[in-house]
Amino acid sequence: MYGSHAMSTTHDIEEGLAFTPKYDADGLITAVATDAATGDVLMVAHMNAEALAKTIASGEAWYYSRSRKALWRKGESSGHVQRVLELRTDCDQDALWLKVEQQGAGACHTGRRSCFYRVVPLGQSGSVRLEFRNADKAFDPQRVYPKPAEEPRR
Which CATH architecture has domain 10-107? Predict the structure, then answer.
């Protein structure tokens, strides 16, 4: 597994060749996935050490769900796998950038190609209203992510 850089100097972390990711207090690191061909930001998620190790070993994106408290491989239920072409870390190794080949229609659980389909207008004060941009659905999320059967009421 890829551990923390608690013993490394700032110079080693910023200029060295050792990969020593810095996880937050919950053991997670932020991961930004972009389309390798277009540069479009597809999604932001988190990885723990196990997800990062699986991503590096398999060449497919693995993440950690904070809400479900579980490891997941992108595309395991939707088929919309992310093949990682390049994995970068930032200067202080507390964030990751995955350049991916997005397989399938999209990366967002809402049915869109990207999770970033709304714009926050600038130059306003007070209440701000979001605007949709490139927000067409690429697939039907109800068909791709079927809801588990509900428990019978007792």
Answer: Roll (3.10)
